[in-house]
Structure formats: structure tokens, C-alpha cells
Specification:
alpha+beta, 44 helices, five-stranded parallel β-sheet, four-stranded antiparallel β-sheet
């Protein structure tokens, strides 16, 4: 085969790949030769091994396939093969139909051979080991072998028991028991293979992992879903482990005869010997199987808060009608105390509120569940409200969105405060508006709770009920903030809290002097009082019944059964009140042992409600499951929609009235009656199998039911233009979105709003279900735009973006599992949907109906969303504005991720050390944290009042530090964006740059007045007197990797070197080097003493020798920022010519080599940062965007290597007078002409020899005029680009052109110049020198850059002004007639609003006849680079992106 390849080298393609294959065969020949020689020496002593023969046949078959491909490439056909060769080769040649094999396929042949050889080598070793083991057997290894066999049989029997278990939890327990025995078995290894030690070590780790998974399932304590996929992956792991152990015992001399018949599967495995498994792969195979189990178990049993928290505070947006008795933030389902009860507890609370005087402003009433804490809270709330002491009440309810987190608490308290105290409304209105997109608790607490409460001048109390129902993480945040900010700090503000005393709550509160920690039954006196209160309550409830079934003795027995739990007594009373056989039921409760506690009571209630038939049991389970899994209380109508097979949902919920709350009166409609669980103990009872036994509900089944109902509802209920449908008319930017939202909730089908917000929440827990992927695809491919519109109207975009990101992540994780149903397209749909929302979130929040137009128009043509939603079956998109040419903003996987969230220029950027987060600072006074993988806007940090100058992550990555022109430095928590402490004030001037010391103790910053300051990184305290090192701003500051040196650079051109000194000791300046131009950026190359910096050009400097080396200097291009990869291999610089350069560090010795990463459709590069692994970098720009680039992308237009020189900028666009063509001119002196309808380039680029700023078509369309100044205006042919007349106009001085235009008859020609002056010229078709007719027409600088003649040639309009030009001198049209005249002259229903960006983050193309078709334009497009002709518009971006949009279908559908 090697000889064939050598002889065919001249006639085959991909010679390098074939040469690599030939080298592989050379290595294989060497190995096989040695084994062949050894086999010859052994002669007939070695018997043929079937495994070896099978592998050799596979290897030979691969060689034959390669031979066939080589012969085919050499031109040999099946007819050329002689019959004596055999039919196999002829048959294979006949099947091969292609020539010129790709290199990847040739490499595949090489890999196939190498894999076969690896199997062969392992089989040879095994064969040798077996021969040796046979010899050992003869040397009396009986006892050792018997010990191994005994242990092996024990392990294999244990593994077999796993498949017999009824539940996954039991199977996990059996595996946890068996794995240590498997490790003990491997310890008996008596072969030369060390791989078994590695496998044993891996199994020990696997044992730990399975213990953790078992604990997770035990803690979940839930009814298992029979469709759960864990079992199949567990079986895979057990199968792989059995195979590995069978190989182990095979190599240790165990044969089929040693295995009992009942383990026939193990006999088969031993018979197969190696069984195709490579020894070196055993560990990785088992680990891979375990990883799959971890993935699927993690998806099946998510963390406690995960299923709710990933959608944030969705109920704020989904909002249902609220009825009495429903679970709400006010705890409306809880009644007040019965008169004459709870006297002792309430008296103690009264004493606290009346006499605390701020020493103990926090009262915590804690006890076990069911003791009546919430009822007491309802009582004191009523009293304090009458006394005008109550500021707010909040009731936590686990599992219900809007009432389960500390951030929900902040929003609710703020709303109540704004109502209770009108003087706080203005202060709270803006933070409440922004609260939907702020997820960091500390920020919300400070703005919504702490600051407004601190301003109160009268005594007030806030009631927080059920703190134990708050999610654990946010509960800890709340308690820490409460104790920090209100523990004795404000004597006027009091907090009353009820809770179960969980361990973490008790540990935080019990030692606090400023907290009263009380119990309902703390003392013997309280316990006796509690029993009396329950007795009084029972007596009161029984008095309301006809023929109450109770005497004194039975009352005592009922009190004993209640065991101090009010919830037990109230539930019994509720059951009896609804019973027609009260006496018999009461006797059962008293006499039946099952009713001895709360669980027994719940069981009894369910048993009495449930008929004996299995169909009723299923109906009950379906309804209760949906109630438990719902993220918000659902109406009876919505429950009926979720459970269509249940004949009467109302009948079931009414029969469970003792444990379920029906919001609203029973006579209300099903749509107005909302159902929720009265007490959390019933929820816990139903979800915990140990307690509810056969009545345990499977939450996955409930999520599946809800997901299915959501999908069906969305399919039926979502339609295009939902806003118009529910507003009753046309919608505009001034339309009240809250009214539309209210209308949708009231008028749409019962489950629509809920489904729009929560379908992801119910889909995620059951992604493993077969067929679910098709439902998800349907939402993306048929309902995406209308779904996004509804969610935006419901104010739910932020949580939906989070949910989509999580869905994408889980789809990707499922993709690692065999047999998964999700394709790459599913993940890409999620990704593109997230990016669509990221790029348009601000727009959709103010104009949700824009989802059908603007976001789709500016997508790249290759995007899934763009392709799909421009198909004919989507008429709205076909009628909307559609880009016809040149370039959109693509979101393809290979393109850089564009991050939009800032409004103004981005000045600084940094990448966290773990590579997961990016921080950016902008002129808009904000710092934004981004997800470095998806580009999601994680948190926007508000607090600075001036442009951000520098932002950096702390060395630990837990904090972000920012500086601003407002003269402050702020520290922020990375995880939630909370500001840490008070801002630090800069000594003098504003901090402009800073760096952390290598030990993280110090922070050094440079200021705008040249000071270098060193402060404590934790406190901001000055460590030494600031040193004035520079004259003017310090632009850069860097510390070497070893912490020995520091460099500073400034506007004065000075580069200072400093010796770093220990903490608390002054910095020591060493020496300086000066340049004539400012040094804009400087940084040390990691692990070296070399500094690379920019001073117009690019330079390096060695700290030790202080020798300077100029690398690149250019008269025009200025390098403005710099970044160095951690591996020291490459350096990035950004320039004022919109270019990012990449330099290899080995060429920084002055040699001519350089690499340029290409011109980008991007503005000036202001900042750069590498990812820690060097595979990506982020760039920030003056156009307010960031981009994340991959450094290993293949060569694409964005990564070409153009010639040196300033990149061309688009200067102006112009329509021909018939609107069929568009011309563009650029600063490079070239012009192009396109056909509007197709985007086809008709002419160009045509080089004119000098830069161009303005262009205009002649009315006949045969030529155009263009130029940079008035004097160099030239005429060019629009057909062939030939010059017709250069320097047409005779004018004096330098007047740069802003615009020029021909009149419709071609006899007049107007120019506008940078002196704000318009001149009017006569124009002769023979191109004689025109004469200036009118000059000194003054115009204002504001307005669109479109100059238009009136068809009568009597008027001219430019930049929202108009002049009469019928005779000299020109006169301005009076203001009262101007607007009407301009509209008539321009004659287009389109208006380009370049100033709406300040309000909506976008520029707008307004359409007079249809506001819903008005188009929001991304900020990348410059308002001064557009042209309008009737219903057509051409948009231009500064660096050349051009887009044609046709609105005519909007006017003439």
C-alpha cells in the first residue's frame, strides 16, 4: 500500500493529506513487523485467536477502501481490473463515484486504521496475558483466583439487582452500595496492567458522585415520573461497568466455567474477552456514562429555586385579576384573629410597638407551621392600619411568582410607600419603572426601601409575613440588609416579621440585641393560652353549624388532636362545615388513628373527597398537580383549559374548600375565580411522598400538563398585531401600553397571558419528554413575533430573555446525550431570539408592535429568523420594509457578537479573570456587565453622574471598580451589582485610569490633573501622599506581572517608570522618557519587563534598559488603545481609523511584519480587552457598541488583510430623479451607483482622484455631479463613469460641500457649504461654466441633509427651512407656511427623525399613513447619510453599510 501511494503521488490531489496517510502506514508497518517476527519465533505454539483475526480483517478492509480511492483518482475503473483479482475490488470501484477526495476524508481513513491498530495491539497484549495466566494457573493460584471469583460474583449480582429496583432512587442506593465492592475487586488485580488502578480511583470518585445524586433525589422526595430518562442512562453506566469488570476478570484468568449459570450475561461477556473495548478507554467510557447521568439528573431534579428564579419576577408582568382569598403579596387569604383569642401574643406585640423607641425595631414571631402566625399578622396589620402606623404588608408564598423573592418584596414595599406617603411618589416613580430590568437585590433595596424609609419623619411599621417561604438565597440577602440598615439606626421605622424558625434564620437573629425573637408557644403560659384560643375558635366555628357534632369530651379530644396547630383545627372545621354527615365524619376524625396529625388530616380529607373509581383519582391528581405547579394562581377557567378531560374542575376545587382558597365569591364566573392552596403545609404534604403516600403528586407530570396547555393556548391565541387588536385602533408611540395590557388580560382566553410568560418555565423541567422539541419549534417558526409582542405588552421581556438563555443552555446540554431530539437549529433559534431581544429590548418596551418590522429588517439575510419570517406565509413581513441590498447586521454564529446597551461612546472595557463576564463604561454615565458567552446584558450599574473613564474587575473577579469624570471611584458586587460602601472621592481632578497591585491590597490611579494616587483597595484610604508625575491627564497605568515595576503615561508625552514598594510605603519614581505626542495607552507584556505603548505610533520599551523601539508610525493613523494576550503571543491595538490591528510579539523588534485584523463597519476604537484564554477579544467604540470577536475565526471579509491607509467613509447618498438608482460617494474619492429595486451594483467604484462629500443626479439620469468643495464639483457619466467636466464651478476660497442638487428641469444647480451658505447656479447642458445667480442663502445646522427644488423652480428647501428663489435675492418662507410648503416639495410620506434616539435608543423613519409600519433604525446608521424618494429610502452607515428599504408595499398592499 505504501508503494502504491508513492507511485501515485504525481497523479492524485490533496498530496499533503495522502503523504500524512503514507507516514501513518510507515509507523504501522514498523509496529506490525515486530509482532510478526515474535509470532514467527513462537511458531505453532500460538493458536489462532478469533478476536485477532477479526481485527486484522477490519484493518485489511480499510486498506482495500484506500486502495480503491487511490485507483479511482488515478483514473482506473472497474473494467481495468482483471478477473483474477476477485470481485470485491471491482464492486468497490464501481461504487466510488467521486474524485479529488477532501483532506478530511483522507484523514478519516488514517484515523480508522489507527483505531484498528490500537485494538489490535490491545488484543495482542490480552492474548499474551491470557497465555501467561494459564501458566500461572498451573502454579497453584487457586486461593487467589477463588477470592477474586467470589468478589466478582458479589459485584455482578449487585449490579444485576439495580435493574430490579422499582424507582430510580432505589436503583441509585443499590449502585452506591455496590461500587465499593467493585473497587475492592479491582484491588485484586494480578496483571501487569496499571490501567485498573486508574479505573479503581475513578470508581471511588464516581461513588461520591452517586452519593450526591442519591442525596439530591432523597431531598427532593417526590413522586417519580415514569417517563423520566434517568433509568436508561443508569442502565448504560451499569452495562459499561459490567463490560469493564468482565474484561478485568478475563485478564485475571477467570473463564466461562468459573461463572454460575444464573449470570449468563456475564458468561457471555467473559467469552467475548476484550469485547471491543480498548483498555486505555475504560476510565473515560465510565466517566462519560456518569456525566450523562449527572446531566439528566440535574435536569430532572433542578435546584429548589431554579425553576422559578430563571424567569425572575414574571408575575409583575403576567398579572392576574386578584380576588379575595387568593395568594397575593398582601396575604389576603388570611383572616383576622377571632375576638378573645391571641390576647397574650398581641399584648406583647402592642408593648413592643409602643415602647421600643428604636432599641428593638425588629420583632420576629417564629414557630412551627400551622400555629397561626399569619392570622396574628393579619390582626395586627388591621389594627396598625386603623392607627395609621402601617406602611406596607407583604406575604411571602413559595412557588408563586411575585411573592417568593426578596426582590419581589422591595418592589411591593415601594409601591405601598408611594401610595401611603405622596411626597415619596416622585422619588420612587423612576426606580419602580426600572425595577423590571434590575435583578440585584441590594440596588432595589437601597432605592426602593432604604432611601425612602430613611426620609420618614413619623413612626411607621412594615409587616412581612411568612419569611420562611422566601427563597433561601434572597432571604439571607434581605435579613443582612435589614439588620445592617435598620437595626437601631432609625427609631421611627419598625419591622414585624413572621416565620418558621429555620436554622439559618435563627442563627442570624438569636444573638441580636436589636431584635425581639418571640414564639407563639414559647412559655408554658403561652402554650396554655394557645390551647384556650384553639378551643375558643372551635367553639365559634361549631356555633355557626346546624346541629354541631360536639360535646365537652369530644372537644377535648379534638384539642388533643390539634396539638397546638391552629391549621389543624381550622381545616377540621372547614371540612365539617361542608359535610352532610357531620357527626359520622367527626367521629371518624376523633377515632381514626390516621387523623392523629396534620398529615393524617390531609389524607383523610383526600380520601373522603375522592370517589373509589380510578378516573376520579386521575382527575383529582390532574387538577391538584396543575394548582401546585402553576407559577401564579390560575382561574377555574384556566384550570379547566389545562385539564380538558376533567368534567368539572369547579366541582373538585369546591369539594376541597377546606384546603383550597377560591378567590372571589362562588357565584362569580370561572374566569373570575382564582384557586390557590390555603396553607403551605398542604403543598409540602402533596409533594413529599413519605407524607402523602399514594396521594403524592408528580410535579413533572403537572409541568408536562401545563406545558402542553400553554403550547395549545399560544397556537390558538397568538395572532399578528395583537396590540392593534386589543387597543381598538391604531397604535403609536403615545399609546398607553398599560391599557392594552389590561385589555389583553381581560379579553383574551383565560390562559393566554399566563402561557406567554410561563411556557418556558413549564417546558424546562420536562425537556426530556418525547415530542416536546416539536412544540418548541412551532413557537419559534410560527408564533415568535406575535409571542414577543404579547410578552412586551405584558412587560415581560427581561425575564423571557433569561428564560430563553436557560432554555438554550439546556438544549445544548441535552445535545451531549445520545438519542436527544434537539437539533442545532433549535439551539440557534434560541440564540437568535435572545439576540433579537438584546438588540431591540429598549425599542420593544416602548413600541412592542415594532417586532414585525424594525428588528427583522436589520437582521442579516442568513439568519434563521430573517429567512423564515420573510416567507410569503407571513404577509405582515412581506408588506413591511424589507432590505434589498448590501449588508445587514448578521447574527450568524461566525460573526462577532454586537453588544448594544449603552447610549453614548464606550470608553473602557475589561474581561473578568474567569472569562465569563465583561464590564464596560460609557459616556452615558453607566457601567454594564455582560455575559461574555451570549452577550446578554446582565446588569446596568447606575450611580455615577459623569462619563465613565475606567472599569476593571478586582483580581478575585468578585468586584468591579469604576471611575468617572464626576470625581468618584465606586466598587460594585459583580453578582448582583450592589454598590459596596460609599463612593471614594478623587484627591484632585477625576480618576482616569487605575490598576490593582499584585497582592490585591492596593489600588493605584492616575487623575486628570497628573496625580498618581495609591489607596487601600478595600477602604479607599490614601496610603501615601499623591505624586504629581504628569502635566495634564494620566492616560494609562500598568503594573508588571511580578509586581516589581509600575508604568504611567500621560497627555504630556511622558512615560514614567516606578519601583513598586510594599503596602504603606511610598512609590519610588525611577526614570522617564518623553515623546512629542501624547501617550494614550500603555501596558506591560505579561511576565516580561517590556512595556508596549501608543504615542501616535506603536512603541516598546524595556524597563531595565529603558531602550525604546518604534514599531509602527503613520502620519494619519493614531493607535488609541492596546491589549496584550495572557500567553504573550499577540497584541491588539485600536486606531482612530476604525481599525483593529493584531501584532505578533515576535515582530516587536522593529521588523516590518504586521497583521491587520481588517476594516470593520465600526466607529473609532476606544478600548480593547483580551479574554483570559486569548481566544476572544472585545472592542468598544465611539458608536456606543461593543463587539466580541473570536481570534481563531477563518478568513472572512471582516478579517481580510487590506492595504495600509485610512478606511473610506460613506459621505452621502442620493436618489436619481426617477427613484430607480442610488449613488453613494466616499472619502476615498470613489462613487458607486446601485439599482434600488434589486440592490444590484450598476456602476463603480469609480475613482475620481480626490475625496468626495456630496453627490446629485442630473434629472435626465445620464450623469451626476459630485465633489468635496464647491470649486472641485465635477460631472461624471452615470453609464460608464467617464469624467465629462471637472472643476465645473468658478468660485473662490475653500468651501467644503455639505450638499448639492439639480432642479427638476436641470437648469438650476444648488450647493450648500460648511459656511452655512447656499449658492444657486445656472446650469447649461453644454457644461459651460455656470454663473452664480444667488448666494448667501443662510441655513441653520440642524435638520435632514436633503436639498430639494420645488417642481416650479420657485422654491428650495434644505434642513427644515425653505426659501423663495424665483428672483434674487432669495427670501425665507414665513414660518406659518413653511411646514406645509416643505411637505409639498419633498412629496414623501417618510420622515427621518434623527433625534428620537435620545428617548427610544433608535432613530425613526416615520410613515404618515401607518404608524405601525414606522421603522426604528439602529444607531449605527447616521441620519446625515440617508436619502428619501417617495416611499423609498436609502440608509447609510459611516463606514459603508448601505441598506435600501421600500415602503411602497405599505402604501399599496
Amino acid at each position: 500500500m505504501i508503494t502504491v501511494l508513492e507511485s501515485a503521488q504525481a497523479s492524485i490531489k490533496n498530496s499533503e493529506a495522502w503523504e500524512a496517510l503514507r507516514a501513518t502506514l510507515e509507523r504501522h508497518r514498523s509496529l506490525l513487523t515486530r509482532h510478526f517476527e515474535r509470532a514467527e519465533e513462537e511458531g505453532t505454539r500460538r493458536k489462532a485467536d478469533p478476536n485477532l483475526l477479526e481485527i486484522l480483517l477490519d484493518y485489511g478492509d480499510a486498506l482495500e477502501d484506500i486502495l480503491v480511492c487511490v485507483l479511482k483518482e488515478m483514473g482506473v475503473s472497474e473494467e481495468d481490473i482483471p478477473p483474477s483479482t476477485g470481485t470485491n475490488l471491482k464492486r468497490k470501484l464501481a461504487k466510488v463515484g467521486l474524485t479529488g477526495l477532501e483532506a478530511e476524508r483522507i484523514k478519516g481513513y488514517s484515523d480508522r486504521l489507527s483505531t484498528a491498530l490500537q485494538h489490535l495491539m490491545t488484543a495482542l497484549q490480552v492474548h499474551t496475558a491470557v497465555e501467561i495466566s494459564k501458566i500461572h494457573d498451573k502454579l497453584d493460584r487457586g486461593p487467589q483466583k477463588q477470592k477474586l471469583i467470589k468478589k466478582a460474583l458479589s459485584v455482578f449480582k449487585g449490579l444485576r439487582e439495580i435493574s430490579k429496583q422499582n424507582t430510580i432512587l432505589e436503583a441509585f442506593r443499590e449502585l452506591v452500595t455496590t461500587l465499593p465492592s467493585a473497587v475492592e475487586l479491582l484491588d485484586l488485580n494480578d496483571t501487569e496492567y496499571s490501567v485498573w488502578q486508574d479505573v479503581a480511583s475513578a470508581l471511588l470518585n464516581h461513588h461520591t458522585s452517586f452519593e450526591e445524586l442519591t442525596t439530591k433525589l432523597e431531598n427532593a422526595d417526590m413522586q417519580e415520573d415514569p417517563k423520566n430518562p434517568i433509568g436508561s442512562y443508569l442502565s448504560l453506566f451499569v452495562s459499561e461497568l459490567e463490560s469493564a469488570l468482565s474484561i478485568f476478570i478475563y485478564l485475571n484468568g477467570v473463564t466461562r466455567r468459573d461463572i454460575p449459570r444464573e449470570l449468563s450475561n456475564i458468561q457471555t461477556l467473559v467469552d467475548k474477552g476484550l469485547n471491543g473495548m480498548v483498555l486505555s478507554n475504560i476510565q473515560s467510557i465510565l466517566t462519560s456514562a456518569l456525566d450523562k447521568i449527572k446531566i439528566i439528573t440535574g435536569l430532572y431534579t433542578p435546584d429548589a429555586d431554579e425553576t422559578v428564579s430563571h424567569l425572575g419576577r414574571s408575575s409583575v408582568f403576567a398579572g392576574s385579576a386578584t380576588g379575595s382569598g387568593m395568594i397575593t403579596p398582601y396575604g389576603a387569604q388570611h383572616k383576622r384573629c377571632l375576638p378573645g383569642t391571641r390576647i397574650v401574643v398581641i399584648q406583647q406585640i402592642d408593648e413592643w410597638i409602643n415602647s421600643s423607641q428604636g432599641k428593638q425595631p425588629i420583632y420576629v414571631l417564629g414557630d412551627v407551621a400551622g400555629t397561626g402566625k399569619s392570622t396574628i399578622a393579619a390582626e395586627v396589620t388591621y389594627r396598625w392600619e386603623k392607627e395609621q402606623l402601617l406602611a406596607s404588608r407583604f406575604f411571602f408564598s413559595r412557588g408563586n411568582s411575585g411573592t417568593s423573592t426578596a426582590t419581589d418584596l422591595c418592589i411591593h414595599l415601594a409601591r405601598d410607600l408611594s401610595v401611603r406617603y405622596p411626597h415619596l411618589q416622585d422619588q420612587l416613580s423612576k426606580p419602580l419603572e426600572e425595577a423590571a430590568s434590575i435583578f440585584q437585590f441590594d440596588k432595589l433595596w437601597e432605592k426602593l426601601v432604604f432611601e425612602p424609609l430613611s426620609q420618614l419623619t413619623e413612626k411607621t411599621v412594615l409587616v412581612i409575613d411568612g419569611l420562611d417561604e422566601c427563597t433561601p438565597a434572597s432571604r439571607e440577602d434581605f435579613l443582612e440588609a435589614l439588620l445592617r440598615d435598620f437595626g437601631q439606626s432609625n427609631p421611627l421605622v419598625h419591622f414585624f416579621i413572621t416565620t418558621r424558625l429555620e436554622d439559618e434564620i435563627t442563627s442570624l437573629l438569636q444573638s441580636r440585641q436589636d431584635v425581639v425573637l418571640a414564639r407563639v408557644q414559647q412559655t408554658e403560659q403561652q402554650r396554655r393560652a394557645n390551647v384556650r384560643d384553639i378551643a375558643r375558635y372551635i367553639e365559634f366555628e361549631f356555633e355557626k353549624m346546624k346541629n354541631p357534632p360536639m360535646n365537652h369530651q369530644s372537644a377535648q379530644r379534638l384539642l388533643e388532636r390539634a396539638d397546638g396547630l391552629f391549621i389543624f383545627a381550622s381545616t377540621v372545621c372547614a371540612v365539617l362545615a361542608k359535610s352532610f354527615e357531620r357527626q359520622r365524619l367527626f367521629d371518624d376524625i376523633l377515632n381514626y388513628k390516621g387523623f392523629t396529625n396534620l398529615d393524617g388530616l390531609y389524607l383523610g380529607i383526600l380520601q373522603r373527597v375522592l370517589p373509589s373509581d380510578p378516573f376520579s383519582r386521575q382527575a383529582l391528581n390532574d387538577v391538584l398537580g396543575v394548582i401546585l405547579a402553576a407559577r401564579e394562581p390560575l382561574s377555574i377557567a384556566a384550570l379547566q383549559a389545562c385539564c380538558p378531560n376533567v368534567s368539572s374542575v369547579r366541582g373538585i376545587v369546591e369539594s376541597l374548600g377546606s384546603v383550597l382558597s377560591l378567590g372571589g365569591e362562588l357565584q362569580q364566573s370561572d374566569a373570575e375565580t382564582f384557586v390557590s392552596i390555603i396553607h403551605q403545609t398542604f403543598r409540602d404534604f402533596l409533594l413529599q411522598k413519605k407524607r402523602s403516600c399514594d396521594y403524592a403528586l408528580n410535579v413533572h407530570t403537572a409541568h408536562s400538563t401545563l406545558a402542553d396547555a400553554c403550547f395549545k393556548t399560544l397556537q390558538r391565541g397568538l395572532h399578528p398585531r395583537m396590540a392593534e387588536a386589543f387597543s381598538g385602533g391604531e397604535v403609536t408611540l403615545d399609546t398607553d401600553l398599560d391599557e392594552i395590557s389590561t385589555s389583553i388580560r381581560a379579553k383574551s382566553e383565560p390562559l393566554l397571558c399566563y402561557s406567554a410568560v410561563y411556557w418556558i418555565s413549564h417546558t424546562i423541567p420536562v425537556l426530556y419528554l418525547h415530542g416536546l422539541h416539536e412544540e418548541i419549534r412551532t413557537i419559534f417558526t410560527e408564533k415568535l413575533t406575535s409571542w414577543v409582542e404579547v410578552v412586551a405588552l405584558l412587560r415581560g421581556l427581561t425575564p423571557i430573555m433569561t428564560g430563553l438563555s436557560r432554555l438554550q443552555d439546556l438544549m445544548k446540554r441535552y445535545g451531549d446525550l445520545p438519542g436527544h431530539q434537539f437539533a442545532n437549529a433549535d439551539t440557534q433559534w434560541c440564540l437568535e431570539a435572545v439576540r433579537l431581544l438584546q438588540n431591540n429590548q429598549t425599542l420593544l418596551q416602548s413600541a412592542p408592535w415594532q417586532v414585525y418590522t424594525s428588528p427583522l429588517v436589520f437582521l442579516g439575510e442568513d439568519d434563521l429568523i430573517s429567512k423564515h419570517y420573510r416567507l410569503p406565509q407571513f404577509p405582515i413581513i412581506r408588506k413591511a420594509a424589507v432590505p434589498l441590498s448590501l449588508s445587514g447586521f448578521s447574527l450568524n454564529w461566525g460573526e462577532p457578537i454586537t453588544l448594544r446597551g449603552h447610549r453614548l461612546c464606550i470608553n473602557c472595557v475589561d474581561w473578568s479573570a474567569d472569562g465569563k463576564c465583561i464590564a464596560s463604561g460609557s459616556d452615558d454615565h453607566t457601567v454594564v456587565l455582560w455575559d461574555a458567552v451570549t452577550g446578554a446584558n446582565l446588569i446596568t450599574l447606575y450611580g455615577h453622574t459623569g462619563p465613565i473613564t475606567c472599569v476593571k474587575f478586582s483580581p478575585s473577579g468578585a468586584e468591579v471598580v469604576s471611575s468617572s469624570e464626576d470625581g468618584t471611584i465606586r466598587r460594585w458586587k459583580r453578582d448582583d451589582g450592589a454598590c459596596i460602601g460609599d463612593p471614594w472621592k478623587s484627591v484632585e481632578g477625576a480618576a482616569r485610569c487605575f490598576a490593582f497591585s499584585s497582592d490585591s491590597r492596593d489600588l493605584v490611579y492616575g487623575t486628570t490633573v497628573g496625580l498618581v494616587c495609591r489607596v487601600d483597595a478595600e477602604t479607599g484610604r490614601l496610603i501615601e501622599t499623591p505624586q504629581r508625575a504628569h502635566v495634564g491627564p494620566v492616560n494609562a497605568l500598568s503594573i508588571s506581572s511580578d509586581g516589581a515595576y509600575m508604568a504611567t503615561a500621560g497627555d504630556d508625552g511622558a512615560l514614567w517608570m516606578w519601583y513598586w514598594t510594599p503596602h504603606e510605603k511610598p512609590l519610588v519614581p525611577s526614570h522617564t522618557r518623553r515623546h512629542q505626542s501624547p501617550i494614550l495607552s500603555a501596558t506591560f507584556i505579561p511576565n516580561t519587563s517590556t512595556i508596549v505603548y501608543t504615542a501616535f505610533g506603536l512603541y516598546t520599551c524595556d524597563v531595565l534598559s529603558f531602550g525604546t523601539n518604534g514599531i509602527q508610525k503613520d502620519e494619519e493613523e493614531q493607535h488609541t488603545c492596546i491589549a496584550v494576550s495572557n500567553d504573550m503571543e499577540s497584541i491588539l491595538t485600536g486606531s482612530n481609523m476604525q481599525t483593529i490591528w493584531t501584532w505578533k510579539t515576535e515582530v516587536l523588534d522593529g521588523s516590518a511584519g504586521h497583521i491587520r485584523h481588517g476594516e470593520m463597519a465600526y466607529a473609532n476604537i476606544r478600548c480593547l480587552a483580551y479574554s483570559p484564554n486569548g481566544r476572544s477579544f472585545v472592542s468598544g467604540s465611539s458608536d456606543s457598541t461593543l463587539k466580541i470577536w473570536e481570534t481563531d475565526l477563518p478568513s472572512t471579509p471582516a478579517f481580510a488583510f487590506p492595504q495600509r491607509g485610512r478606511p473610506s467613509m460613506l459621505m452621502m447618498l442620493a436618489f436619481s430623479h426617477d427613484g430607480e438608482s442610488v449613488a453613494a460617494v466616499g472619502s476615498d474619492g470613489a462613487f458607486k451607483i446601485w439599482e434600488f429595486d434589486t440592490g444590484k451594483l450598476q456602476l463603480g467604484p469609480i475613482a475620481t482622484g480626490s475625496p468626495l462629500t456630496a453627490v446629485a443626479f442630473h434629472p435626465n439620469g445620464q450623469f451626476l455631479a459630485c465633489g468635496k468643495t464647491v470649486t472641485d464639483v465635477s460631472i461624471w457619466s452615470a453609464f460608464n463613469g467617464e469624467p465629462i467636466r471637472r472643476n465645473l464651478l468658478n468660485d473662490e476660497g475653500y468651501k467644503e460641500l455639505y450638499a448639492l442638487e439639480f432642479s427638476s428641469n436641470g437648469r438650476l444647480f444648488a450647493t450648500a457649504d460648511h459656511y452655512m451658505n447656499i449658492s444657486l447656479w445656472s446650469f447649461d447642458p453644454t457644461f459651460t461654466v455656470p454663473s452664480c445667480i444667488i448666494t448667501n442663502i443662510r441655513f441653520s445646522p440642524d435638520g435632514p441633509n436633503a436639498m430639494v427644488f420645488d417642481p416650479s423652480q420657485q422654491f428650495l428647501t434644505y434642513r427644515n427651512q425653505a426659501w423663495y428663489i424665483g428672483q434674487p435675492p432669495a427670501s425665507q418662507v414665513p414660518e406659518e407656511h413653511r411646514e406645509q410648503l416643505i411637505d409639498r416639495i419633498i412629496g414623501s410620506p417618510l420622515h427621518y427623525d434623527d433625534y428620537a434616539a435620545k428617548k427610544h435608543g433608535r432613530k425613526w423613519i416615520d410613515v404618515e399613513s401607518s404608524s405601525i409600519q414606522s421603522l426604528a433604525v439602529p444607531l449605527e446608521f447616521d441620519g446625515r447619510r440617508h436619502a428619501i424618494f417617495g416611499g423609498r429610502i436609502a440608509l447609510g452607515a459611516k463606514l459603508g453599510d448601505v441598506m435600501f428599504i421600500d415602503f411602497r408595499p405599505t402604501f399599496h398592499p
